[in-house]
């Protein structure tokens, strides 16, 4: 019997074998996340630092669509923002979606999407983006 099995048998003495195997997988997934989270954090931080505007998004989210529409219609099309200064990271099909949302929670205080970053600072989500634009403050941030 492996040391991990012994630990889980002591922690969960009356559990079924299938639950024990599931718990072991969850345990090892949790351990491996720690190594992966550092890489994810570096990647996200590099993307945010490398662009004027970064949106962490899910393609089906109406708030994400709202935020992206503001930038596309009001800043990209008229040429106020260049394509190479703008990055949308669609995380709904990313295998690290959960970890990215956990990281957003740590970085911004919210794990919901969209998370909109301008010059490295999070301005909030879709509603905040629309509000700042309607107040004329979004252009000043760019």
| Helical coverage, percent range | 55-70%
Per CATH, the superfamily of the domain at 52-142 is Glutaredoxin
Major sheet description: 4 strands, mixed
Order of helices and strands: HHEHEHEEHH
**Radius of gyration based on Cα positions:** 20 Å
What is the number of E strands? 4
Average pLDDT number: 83
Number of helices: 6
Low-confidence stretches: 4-9, 11-35
Strand order, largest beta sheet: 2-1-3-4
Structural class determined from secondary elements: alpha+beta
State the CATH topology of the domain at 52-142.
Glutaredoxin
Label the overall shape.
globular
> Ends: how far apart?
60 Å
Q: Which CATH class of the domain at 52-142 is shown?
A: Alpha Beta
State which percent range the strand residues make up. Answer: 5-15%
Label the CATH architecture of the domain at 52-142: 3-Layer(aba) Sandwich
Report on this structure.
This protein is of the alpha+beta class and 142 residues long. The chain has a domain at 52-142: Glutaredoxin (3-Layer(aba) Sandwich). 59% of the residues lie in helices and 13% in strands. It has helices spanning 3-11, 17-50, 62-76, 97-108, 126-134, 137-141; strands spanning 53-57, 86-90, 115-118, 121-124. It has a 4-stranded mixed beta sheet with strand order 2-1-3-4. Helix 3 runs parallel beside helix 5 (126-134). The longest helix has 34 residues, at 17-50. The radius of gyration is 20 Å and the shape is globular. Residues 4-9 and 11-35 have low confidence and may be disordered.
